Amino acid sequence: MAADPFRYYEFFAGGGMARLGLGGGWDCLFANDFDAGKAAAYAANHGAAHLRQGDIWDLTAADLPGAADLAWASSPCQDLSLAGRRGGLDGGRSSAFWGFHRLVEGLVREGRAPRVLVIENVSGLLSSNGGGDFTALGAALAALGYRFGALEVDAALWLPQSRPRVFVIATRGEDAIGAAGPSAPFHGPRVQAAWERLPAELKDRWAWWRLTPPARRNGTLAEVLEPDHAVAWFDEARTRALLAMMAPLHRERLASAGADGRAVGALYRRVRTERGEKVQRAEVRFDGLAGCLRTPAGGSSRQVVVVAEGGRVKARRLTAREGARLMGLPEDYRLPRAETAALKLLGDGVAVPVVRALAEQILEPLLTGAARAAA
To answer: Most exposed residue of 32, 165, 263, 339, measured as fewest CB within 10 angstroms of its CB?
Structure first.
């Protein structure tokens, strides 16, 4: 007889990418997102039966049905991003985390606390406000009776996209399946530094979660792209203007890339400080990876595909469908029709195979062990 599915709540759900990663062995009891466009994408792909659009601060524990095994929260990262103003967990949007915390606190009081929590965010969570935000997060989890630990996971181990993210996993059980200490590549210097800054009482609540990286990454950037004839390329003048923004190092990288055949790279425009002045530069990589997908909101530049071959260079914007592949989404995933809305959805999302790896190696074993202990 098949085992009953694990039950979960999904907060800051976006287009339901965590739901895809958790897979068919999981049953969603409740999903929430503030953004109407993201909620529409969620409903288009997963249905709206368990979806509530609106501010997390408007929810109470009474709005959450049943008892969930897991609560997943991919809270807004704008105030924690290394590229942003870094207002920290008390910043305007990342403070939404405390709305999530308030709901879990209510569930604890009612005896319905999820056994496991996952909090996903950018790597800046580890160091924002001098590490004070991460310490505050750990203290908040410990006060609710949870043990916790963090992993910094780059989706590039599974997908051709450089996308490091922090996953804080917390459990109310004492059977944390962790190692005796940090292990590469998921407990790198930033995670270890965050742990070192914790006071002794929080270090006692820490778990070094064990995660095994995949044997090899599935594919390269070139393999997820549309055929050349199916996409619109920049004209020569626009391409020249883009390449003129390159610093000498990147011009040399581009010149050598296509010397031995077709080379496909990813390019972003970035603002750099040179000789005391801010200069916009085009920076390109030819390592088989796309740069981290970003939301276009807030002025972030859109990623550009560059192809060098036979001494010629052509460039174009990365499409939303290509971005979806870089997130591990299936081909039949329904993206918003507007390209900007689709890229916003993807830039704020979580990579599907990373969620699956966490579920298989940490979340499901934790919950299965809990079920055995209760039997």
So the answer is: 339
